[in-house]
C-alpha cells in the first residue's frame, strides 16, 4: 500500500528521535514549563515540550542533563495549542499554494489541504506531482485532495480525468483525500469509473469530501453508502444536523460568498447541539480580501463569540480534522511523535498566536511573521507565463446567439432572451449588458454571447483566470475588449480592466495565467482591492468578482454556464449552443 503522510520520517530519523529521549542527542528547541492543550484529556497541562528538528519527541517534566546549545523558550505565562488546519482550501484564488501557505502559517494555520483541480488541468502529471514534493520542503504542511470530476464541461474531459491520472494522484503520499465531489449526480446515475475511484480512495484509508448543496436525507444516505465521509455545503443548522445524522462530518464555512459560520453555530445551539466532535471549519477558498482578517484563528474566535467553548473551537480546526483524515498520529494534537506545528498563545481565550512553529521552524516570533522566503520556479513545473501566440479576428466578435447570461448574484447565472441588435461595435452605456467571449487559451474555439448584470460601464476586460483556464473577454466596446486582450498578452496572463482613456487596473498572473507569484502582503492584496474598487465604479453590483470569474464556467452551479463545449443547461446536462471552432 502507498505510504501515507503519517510515514513522514525515515527509519534513520525515527532512531534519532528515540536517541533524543534517551539523552544521546540533544533536542533542538525546548518550550520550558509551557501550559499546553492536552487534547486527549481535554485539559490544560504544564510541561516541557522537546522538539527535535521538525518533530515533538517528548512532553513531560524532564529536562536534558546538558542544555547547552539548545534553544530554550521560557513558556511561563504562555499557552500552546496545535497548529491549525485548513482542511478545505482552494489555494489558487489569485494567490498560489506557497504564498497562501506562508500567509496562513504566520497566523497559526500551519497545515493546508488544498484542491488539486488547477494542477490537474494545467500541468503534466509528472510535473504536478513533483511540485507537491517541492512545496512540502517549506515549513508549511501542504497536503492535497484529488478531484474525480472537472467541475466544468471540457472538450477532452475523459482523457484528463482518466482512471490512470486519478490513480496516480491518489497514490501520492501528500494526497490525503478524494473530492470535493461536485459530480455526484453522475455517481448516483451509475458512473463506474467514479465509483471505482471512490472505492480505491477508501482502500487507501483516505476520506472522500462531498459537495451536496441542499441535499436531502436520502441523497446524503446514498452518498454515505457509496463512501463519502464529509461535506461542507450546509447553509442552515438543520442541514448540519442532517449530515451528522447521516454519519458525515460537517464543515462550517466562512467565505466571501458563504459567510455562514456564526449563523450556523447559533442555529445549532438553538437545536440543542452541545457536542462538536463531528464539526470542522473552513474558509472554503476565499480570495485575498476574504482572509485579510485572518484564517482559522479568526474562525475560532467567531465560534467562541457564538458560545462554543474555546477548547472545542480549537479542536474544530485541529483534532477533529486530524481524526477525519486519519492523521492524528502526526497532526492535530500536541504529543510525542507529532510534527512540531505549535501555536503559542498569550492566553487561553485568544486564538491569535504570538509565536508559531511550523515543522519546528519559527514562522512567527513576538507577534511578527517570519516565514522563510520560499521561491518556487513555476516555469520549471510546467506553469510559465501564458504565451498567447494567436490573434483575435473579426469573426470572434460576431454575436448571433439569441440567448444571453444574466447574473443573479456573484455566482448564479440564468438564461435570458437577447432583445437588441448586436451588429453595433458598442452597447449603450448604462444598459447593464456587455459583450462576452470565452475563448480557448490556445485559440482553437470560442463562445460569444451577452452578459447581463456584470457592469454598467465597462469599456474592456480580459481575464485568463477561470475554472478551465480559458480566456474571458467582457465589455461594452468590441475595441475595448481587443485592447484589453492585447494587454493580457503583454503581461503573460492575468486580469486586465481597461478604461476608455487607456488606463488599466491589472493583476498579473505569471504562473500559467492562473495565479500570481507575489505574496499577499507584497502586493496581491492591494492589487485585488484596486480591481474590486474599479469594477465597483464600473457598476459591478456584487461582492466578489474573483468568484464570479472563477464560476462563469463551473457546472456544479445553476442554471446555465459558458464552457469549452458552449452554453450548457446545467440541470438538463445538455449543450444549448455549441462552441465554434476558429
TrEMBL record:
It is an enzyme of class 3 (hydrolase). It comes from the Bacteria. Pfam families: Adenine_deam_C, Amidohydro_1. Its EC number is 3.5.4.2. The keyword Chaperone does not apply. Residues 80-363 form the Amidohydrolase-related domain. It catalyses: adenine + H2O + H(+) = hypoxanthine + NH4(+). Keywords: Hydrolase. Residues 435-573 form the Adenine deaminase C-terminal domain. One of its GO terms (molecular function) is adenine deaminase activity. Belongs to the metallo-dependent hydrolases superfamily. Adenine deaminase family. This is adenine deaminase. It comes from Alkalicoccus urumqiensis. The lineage of its organism: Bacteria, Bacillati, Bacillota, Bacilli, Bacillales.
Amino acid at each position: 500500500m502507498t505510504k501515507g503522510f503519517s510515514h513522514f520520517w525515515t527509519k534513520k530519523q525515527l532512531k534519532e528521535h528515540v536517541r533524543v529521549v534517551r539523552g544521546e542527542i540533544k533536542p533542538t528547541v525546548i518550550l520550558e514549563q509551557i501550559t499546553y492543550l492536552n487534547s486527549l484529556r481535554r485539559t490544560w497541562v504544564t510541561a516541557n515540550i522537546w522538539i527535535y528538528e521538525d518533530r515533538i519527541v517528548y512532553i513531560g517534566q524532564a529536562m536534558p542533563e546538558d542544555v547547552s546549545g539548545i534553544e530554550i523558550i521560557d513558556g511561563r505565562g504562555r499557552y500552546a495549542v496545535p497548529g491549525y488546519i485548513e482542511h478545505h482550501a482552494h489555494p489558487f484564488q489569485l494567490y498560489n499554494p506557497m504564498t497562501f501557505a506562508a500567509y496562513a502559517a504566520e497566523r497559526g494555520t500551519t497545515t493546508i489541504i488544498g484542491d488539486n483541480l488547477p494542477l490537474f488541468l494545467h500541468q503534466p502529471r509528472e510535473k504536478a506531482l513533483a511540485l507537491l514534493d517541492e512545496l512540502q520542503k517549506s515549513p508549511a504542511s501542504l497536503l492535497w485532495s484529488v478531484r474525480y470530476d472537472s467541475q466544468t464541461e471540457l472538450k477532452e474531459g475523459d482523457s484528463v480525468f482518466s482512471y490512470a491520472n486519478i490513480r496516480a494522484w491518489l497514490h501520492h503520499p501528500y494526497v490525503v483525500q478524494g473530492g470535493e465531489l461536485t459530480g455526484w449526480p453522475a455517481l448516483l446515475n451509475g458512473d463506474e469509473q467514479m465509483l471505482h475511484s471512490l472505492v480505491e480512495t477508501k482502500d487507501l484509508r483516505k476520506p472522500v469530501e462531498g459537495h451536496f448543496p441542499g441535499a436531502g436525507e436520502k441523497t446524503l444516505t446514498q452518498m454515505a453508502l457509496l463512501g463519502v465521509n464529509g461535506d461542507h455545503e450546509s447553509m442552515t443548522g438543520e442541514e448540519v444536523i442532517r449530515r451528522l445524522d447521516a454519519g458525515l462530518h460537517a464543515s462550517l464555512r466562512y467565505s466571501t460568498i458563504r459567510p455562514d459560520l456564526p449563523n450556523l453555530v447559533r442555529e445549532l445551539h438553538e437545536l440543542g447541539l452541545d457536542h462538536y466532535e463531528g464539526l470542522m471549519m473552513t474558509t472554503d477558498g476565499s480570495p485575498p480580501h476574504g482572509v485579510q482578517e485572518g484564517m482559522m484563528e479568526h474562525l475560532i474566535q467567531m465560534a467562541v463569540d457564538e458560545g462554543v467553548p474555546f477548547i472545542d473551537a480549537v479542536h474544530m480546526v485541529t483534532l477533529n480534522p486530524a481524526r477525519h483524515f486519519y492523521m492524528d498520529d502526526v497532526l492535530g494534537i500536541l504529543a510525542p511523535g507529532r510534527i512540531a506545528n505549535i501555536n503559542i498563545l498569550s492566553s487561553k481565550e485568544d486564538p491569535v498566536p504570538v509565536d508559531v512553529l511550523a515543522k519546528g521552524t519559527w514562522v512567527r516570533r513576538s507577534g511578527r511573521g517570519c516565514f522563510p522566503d520560499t521561491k518556487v520556479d513555476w516555469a520549471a513545473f510546467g506553469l510559465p507565463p501564458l504565451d498567447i501566440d494567436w490573434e483575435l479576428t473579426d469573426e470572434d466578435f460576431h454575436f448571433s446567439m439569441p440567448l444571453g447570461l444574466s447574473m443573479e448574484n456573484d455566482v448564479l447565472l440564468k438564461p435570458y432572451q437577447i432583445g437588441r441588435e448586436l451588429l453595433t461595435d458598442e452597447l449603450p452605456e448604462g444598459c447593464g449588458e456587455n459583450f462576452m467571449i470565452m475563448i480557448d487559451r490556445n485559440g482553437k474555439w470560442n463562445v460569444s454571447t451577452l452578459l447581463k448584470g456584470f457592469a454598467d460601464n465597462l469599456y474592456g476586460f480580459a481575464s485568463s483566470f477561470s475554472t478551465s483556464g480559458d480566456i474571458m473577454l467582457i465589455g461594452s466596446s468590441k475595441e475595448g475588449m481587443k485592447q484589453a486582450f492585447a494587454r493580457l498578452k503583454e503581461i503573460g496572463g492575468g486580469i486586465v480592466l481597461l478604461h476608455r482613456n487607456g488606463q488599466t487596473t491589472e493583476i498579473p498572473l505569471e504562473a500559467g495565467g492562473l495565479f500570481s507569484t507575489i505574496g499577499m502582503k507584497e502586493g496581491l492584496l492591494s492589487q485585488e482591492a484596486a480591481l474590486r474598487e474599479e469594477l465597483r465604479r464600473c457598476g459591478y453590483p456584487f461582492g466578489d468578482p474573483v468568484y464570479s470569474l472563477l464560476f462563469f464556467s463551473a457546472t456544479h452551479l445553476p442554471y446555465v454556464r459558458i464552457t469549452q463545449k458552449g452554453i450548457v443547461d446545467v440541470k438538463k446536462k445538455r449543450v444549448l449552443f455549441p462552441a465554434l471552432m476558429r
